[in-house]
TonB-dependent receptor
Amino acid sequence: MFQRKLLSASLLLALTTPVHAAESADVAKLRKEIEAMRANYESRIQALEKRLETAEARSAAPAVAVAPSVAPATVTEPAVAAPQATPVAAAPQSSDSAFNPAISLILAGQYTYTKRDPANYAITGFPVPSDAEIGPGDRGFNLGESELGLSANIDHRFRGVANIALHGDNSLSVEEAYVQTMGLDHGLGLKVGRYLSGIGYLNETHAHTWDFVDAPLAYQAFVGGQYGDDGVQLRWLAPTDTYLEFGAELGRGRAFPGSDAGGNGAGGGAVYGHIGGDIGESHSWRAGLSYLQAKAKEQLWEVADLAGNSVSNAFTGDTRLWIADFVWKWAPMGNATVQNFKLQGEYLRRSQKGDLAYDTAGANSSDAYRSTQSGWYLQGIYQFMPQWRVGLRGEQLQHGTVDYGLNAASLAASSYDPARASLMLDYNPSEFSRIRLQFTRDLSREGLADSQAFIQYQMSLGAHGAHTY
């Protein structure tokens, strides 16, 4: 009997031993993986805690003001120091997006109707270089300007951004390509590369965020639609409850109203300041003042002389541009999803001083040139129900004073004040899509009133960062 029980126990032990051995191997493997994950995460947590300590040290200064918004203000609890992690072997650190940048694609296109031939478009009394983006564009169906964007945090100090413009004529241009600092002390921020200037209100915003199909007339006449430069930009956000920001730029001055002279020195520079805040829970505002200075060398202007002939004139000299801007926004209790209203306006004043060579291909007569001109626009955008907005924009240029010197015998200063009025209606199924209808009465050309109509679509694919206030 005893031998039978001993034989049964031996048999049972023999059958169960492989099962327990397999289970032990699986448990050991899982424990090994857990330990590896724990070591990896503890290393990351330790790195984050070091960054948190640095951020807490900076927060000892007064709280930095934030840009105004229509959302109600919130109270932030004081940061609490995190407990120190147990030291472990350091693991290689890498950015999650170092080799995986955020990619966005803005698809844009439109149908354009004009009563007058857009090929002959000009702004009477306000000559611009031939490569400036002015006027309604080509008639009929057009692909428009799409935008390919790439951005990523390079490391804990730098961020890189590139925006490539895809034009309807199958050409490409670099709209922006810059490196931006992250986490500099004392509210400072530095940007180096090609960027849209921070002057004014509308200039820095991308075209697909505009409330109308085209840029205001003053922007077209004074900066060729939008001003960008290659250089360095420094901004400072004041540590105040009121939003207060100052900026300065120094660059090549390659774009109109400047020109690329190819010298070693800077060809342009700008300074500006912005102030803003919230009024209650439903209102917010921002105001700004900007100054831009640019140098031009033999900048070609195509104009008509007193005999009615089209001639090329070359301007060499300095341009100074002042911009005053104001924006006011309203949304009931800070909720802009159902109803909201935006009132936006800018005043631009330009002075030019230098020499103008008349008819460079013929007479090539050069003499002193002086001008002081201005312009403004005012627009209101009302979202009267979810997904639907209506807008109205009025604008005008003042011919000011223009002195051609001895060339006044061939060129006449115009006394005409160009103007436009636009009405738009757009439908936004989501934050990623927009369909817009716009009607414009264009009085840019003296004696040639133009009626224009646009149907535009804008579609956003991929990740796209938030835009400024």
About this structure: The domain at 102-462 is CATH 2.40.160.10 (Porin). The first strand starts at residue 102 and ends at 114. Residues 2-58 form the longest helix (57 residues).
